Amino acid sequence: MSAPGLRAKAPGAKPAAEKPAAPRVPGGSQVLHEGDWSTPSTARLGMLKRLREQGIVSEAVFEAMRRIPRERFIDEALWSRAYEDNALPIGFEQTISQPYVVAKMIASILPPTGKLAKVLEVGTGCGYQAAVLSQVADEVYSIERIRGLYDRARNNLRQLRLPNVRLAYGDGYQGLPDAAPFDAIIVAAAAPAIPPALVQQLKRGGKLIIPVGTNSQQLKLVEKRVAGVIESQLDMVRFVPMLNGMVK
Predict the structure, then answer these.
(1) What pairs with residue 142 in β-bridges?
(2) Whole-model pTM?
(3) pLDDT confidence bin for 39, thresholds 50/70/90
């Protein structure tokens, strides 16, 4: 007799087929189904609440950051800190930007529709900001000068299987002229001055957001209009420096 609530197996019945294991990306990371990562945790929702209190108002940005698991882009030892409003180390003397800065920068380049056609990110890092951008843009191009970070970002992004993100290994000062022009460019490192090549790769009406300065850095918004280029000064920030060349 079977126990209450359990069904006895019929004689000769075949055992139930086991659910196939999720495929893995190079390096052993599990490829996740969208439902595994897009449902926000309590910590992720707490981050969104804090962003509203800090003055972020873009619903498109909230939705994008609600869907992307920040912990998947940092070392597992730091997962408990993933949704703090702090920059965190990602190796190679680089950091993942604090959530407020990511939200502020993306909100600053979004049009009123909350959707971009094509965007370039300079400084892929661990890939988190590119993943957030994938939720608000049809095409995301991201360039990274450090080969080890490029490989890490590629593996991180493969876990989420985002089809509209394209990574490039190259010098961010040069941008990606073959993919230009872009509706927006977002730079995740501080340059001593605004790189002319990036301004040239903007569409007319496009926006570039970039930290500028060395010891003292200020977030600047550059808009390319018919009458010329208009610069606006936003928050004081602290980013790693934007360097020339590539690192193998």
Answers:
(1) 121, 167
(2) 0.86
(3) confident
Indicate the class that CATH gives domain 34-237.
Answer: alpha beta
Burial (0-12, 13-18, 19+ Cβ within 10 Å), 52 = exposed
- Count of residues in the chain: 248
- As annotated, the active-site residues are 97
Residue 97 CB contacts under 8 Å (≥ 6 apart), including other chains: 87, 105, 125, 128, 129, 188, 239
pLDDT tens for 121-179 read: 999 999 999 999 999 999 999 999 999 999 999 999 999 999 999 999 999 999 999 99
Cα separations in angstroms, 26 against 31, 68, 165: 10, 21, 18
Instruction: Tell me how far apart the alpha carbons of residues 235 and 197 are, in angstroms, rounded to a whole number.
Output: 24
Pairwise CA distance, residues 214 & 35, whole Å: 42
Where exactly are the structural domains of the chain? 34-237
